Amino acid sequence: MEFKNEYQQQIPQSKYECLLFDVDDTLYPLSSGLSAECTKNIREYMVKKLDIEETKVPEMCAQLYKDYGTTMAGLRALGYDFDHDDYHSFVHGRLPYEYLKPDPVLKALLHSLPIRKVIFSNANEAHVAEVLHRLGLEDCFDDVICFESLNPKTQITNSKSPKSSVTGYDDVSKHAVVLPESPIICKPFENAFQQAFKMAKIAPLKTLFFDDSIRNIQTAKLTGLNTVLVGFSQKKKGVDYALESIHNIKEALPELWESVKKSKGGRYSRKIGIETHVKA
Fold it and tell me: Gene3D superfamilies from the xrefs (predicted)?
C-alpha cells in the first residue's frame, strides 16, 4: 500500500479537469463563411417575420448583438414576441452546412486528451448537433450546454426567471445607460456562465474555456475560468492564451499533453526514487 501511494504521488495531476468549447467560429474558422450566412438569415428574419424596416436592419442587428450577445436576445429585450423554435429554424435551419468539412486533425487532437470536454454555445441544440456532425466531432464531447439548456420554455414564460441585465453606452454622451432586460440567458453575461457551471458541474478554476468572442472571454475570466481566445494571434485583457486556429492548441498548450504522457508513461522506481518515461 505504501508503494502504491508513493507511485501515485509521482504522477503529475493535470491542471485542468474540463475543457469548455464554444462552437461557431471556434471549432471551425470564420473563413468558412457560415457565420456570414447566419447574419444574412437573421436580417432576413427581422424584415420578413418582424416587419422591421429593411434599411434599419443592418445597424440594428449589429447593435443588438453588441449589447445583448445575440441579436435574438436583443430583439426580445425590445419587446418583439416570436417563437424561438421558428427563429432558430429560419436562422440556422437554412444554413449551407456543406461549407463545413470533416476535421480529422481536430478530432485526433481532442481524442488524444483524456480530459472532460463540454460544449457551451448560445446556438440551439439542432445547430450544434449539425455542426459537430459535419466536422466529424460528434463523439468528442461529454456534454452540451446550448440555448435550450439555458432557456427552457418554462423559464422563458416565467416573469420571475433570471434575466440578462445589460449596461450599454449612449452614442452621444458615451455615458453608461441601463438597457432593457432580455428574458434570454446567453453569453457573454455572467448568469449564463454560472448556470452552465451548475448544469454541467464545472469547477471554473480547473476549466479551460475556448471562444472566439473577446466579450465572452473577458466575462469567463471574471468567473474564474482559464481562457483561450480562438481566431486571434495576440492576447488581450482577460486572455490567457490566443490561438489563430483551434488546430494550434497543442503548440500553445503543450502542458495538456505533457501531463497525459507522464501519467501514461511514468514509471516509479522505489529503489532510486525517480520517474522515467516510456514513449509509445
Answer: 1.10.150.450, HAD superfamily/HAD-like
